[in-house]
Amino acid sequence: MKRPLVILAAGYVLGEVLALQVNTAVDIGILARLFAAAAGVLWLLEMGRDILCLPVSKKKMQGRSNRKHKVLLLFLVCILAGASAGLARGRQEKEILDIEESGARAMANGRVLVKGQIKKIEQKNETITLTLEGVTAEAGKKTAEFRRIMVYAEDEVKERDGAKERGETKEKDESGLGAILAVGQRVQVRGKITPVEGPRNPGEFDFRTYYRTKGTACRVYGENLTVTGGEEIPYYKGITGFRKWCAGILDKICVPEDAAVFKAVLLGDTSDMNPEMRDMYQRNGISHLLAVSGQHLAIIGGGIYLMIRRAGAGYGKAGMISAVLVISYGIMTGSSGSAIRAVIMIVCLWLAAVKGRSYDTLSALGAAALILLYRQPYLLYHSGFELSFGAVLAISGLGGWVQSFLELERAWEKTLLISLSVQIVLTPIVLYHYFQHPLYGIFLNLLVIPLVSILMYSGILGIVLGSFWIQGGVAAVGAGHYILRFYELLCKFAEGLPGYSLVLGRPSPGSLVMYFGIYGMGTAVVLFCIRGRSAFIRAKSPARCNAY
User: Fold this and answer.
1) Lower CB count within 10 Å: N or C terminus of the chain?
2) pLDDT band, very low/low/confident/very high, at 417 (cuts 50, 70, 90)
């Protein structure tokens, strides 16, 4: 059976979707009966087709029928196994978060003392965000335990003497909480714990689901944050230090607006991004440039792998060293769903090279989906997760199938087909989460995507040269500077065109089913008409076709 991981992942996603719906109570037995009925119908259809086909010999007919039945049975087993596992894991995650939400609601009226271990630290402006694990909360005689909690606190920054007179900015990394806190330490903070509520008005952002994609159901706005014990983990300390070092070099060699974009593209740090610039990228459908994803990992990870291979290392050593570095890069950039998906897929590529096997993009995508969704089932509802997986499905699934069906050979035809496939698949996802559709996004992406590699190489070279030669670093990021100005000009030009952004609202589930159904049937009809026309032409003039 081709791509069993894809079928297993599809079943797992189906099970989790059914389990995570608020008003859905699905039993495994119901799924089993549905799949058994589907198996019976498909088996009857297969038997009827074999009888009508009248093959050359009965032995050949029996062998072909048995082989197809085995594949069909394996297909249904994969779907049932995946759906069963996804349903069980989704129910488990939902029950845990519901219990934690109830505990937070019971303690929401007073101040609590929260204790936990730091898992992740993020800084934005003068606010520090901590992800704590193994949390206990105390409010008087009430106590509760939480698996994970988000804590927001003000970063207590102290300005150095005379800093305002000299026009210096606050140095958070040297004098704020960012210099004290580290992953692995245990802290305590006093504040108010609140369960995250869902949207109250149609179209309002769903904070409840968003926080559940992070594995938590409540948050704390605290103060008096202190370290109570624990030791910082050297691995995370090294990653954090390297990230700050790279950000410091970019601040020295770039103008502020360019440094913010380079940090987002290379380091996954969007804290310095101008909200207006971020909105401009999003309105025009090119905000994916600011998120670390497959293209970024392919450029960085692929470059590291090739350098190690050319240095004389074999497939095994090169793959192992590159995997460690790429996983570290994924953690450094924030461990987002799109970044970890890309890390898993590129590691699968290197494993295939070590084993001497061919690499299949869709199978690697299925493996990434199983790993990520087992860890955090609610990632299914995260826009970044859906856009990332949808883009790969569009490129390697729909786009790859149509390309092989039409036997395209010209580069511009393949590029246009892939862009169109991505637009078809991602349009309903964009509408569902952002309520608007960038009409000219497909054309802008044709212009901006080929320049992303140059932008990244420019930033990487700037960091390398800027570490010992500031003037060289400034010169290296010059190419990236002009590319970013080109992006801005494109966005402003597109926004001047009529109907550049269509505000269509959130589509209903029925509209989504109709959308994909119409596109699916329409694509199939067009492709078979093209294939039939080509076959007719070849039949009419075989000599010309053979000579061509």
Assistant:
1) C
2) confident
Which contiguous run of DSSP H or E holds residue 191?
strand 186-195
At 182-197, the pLDDT tens digits run 888 899 998 888 898 8
Q: What is the pTM of this model?
A: 0.82
Render 501-522 in DSSP notation, one character per residue: EEE--PPPHHHHHHHHHHHHHH
Read off the DSSP letter of residue 134: E
Could you tell me the two tokens for 61?
């007919």
Cβ proximity of 431 and 506 under 8 Å: yes
Cα angle for residues 161, 163, 166 (degrees, 5° grid): 125
**Cα–Cα distance between 128 and 153 in angstroms, integer?**
5
CA distance 479 to 499: 32
Rounded to the nearest 5 percent, the helix, strand and coil shares of the chain are: 65, 10, 20
Structure tokens at 377: 């089932």
Q: Can you tell me the distance from the alpha carbon of 455 to that of 479, in angstroms, rounded to the nearest whole number? A: 7
Q: Is 502 exposed, middle or buried (0-12, 13-18, 19+ CB in 10 A)?
A: exposed
Q: How far apart are CA 343 and CA 346, in angstroms?
A: 5
**Two structure tokens written together for 194:** 């609140």
Could you read off the pLDDT of 52-106 as tens digits, one per residue?
454 545 445 455 555 666 666 677 777 777 777 888 888 888 888 888 888 888 8
Instruction: Kindly state the tokens that stand for 159.
Output: 């300005």
> Are β-strands 142-154 and 218-229 bridged in parallel, bridged antiparallel, or unpaired?
parallel
* 164 has pLDDT over 60: no
Packing angle between helix 234-253 and helix 315-332, nearest 10 degrees? Answer: 70
Q: Are 407 and 548 in contact (CB under 8 A)?
A: no
Give kind and range of the element (H or E) at residue 144: strand 142-154
Backbone angles phi, psi at 253, to 5 degrees: -105, -5
* Residue scoring higher pLDDT (526 or 544): 526
Two tokens, residue 126: 């003068």
Q: Which of 21, 24, 8, 22 is nearest to 84 (CA)?
A: 8
Task: Write the CA distances from 505 to 121, 125, 216, 263, 391, integer angstroms.
Answer: 35, 32, 28, 32, 21
User: Any idea what DSSP says for residue 500?
Assistant: S
Structure tokens at 423: 């637009």
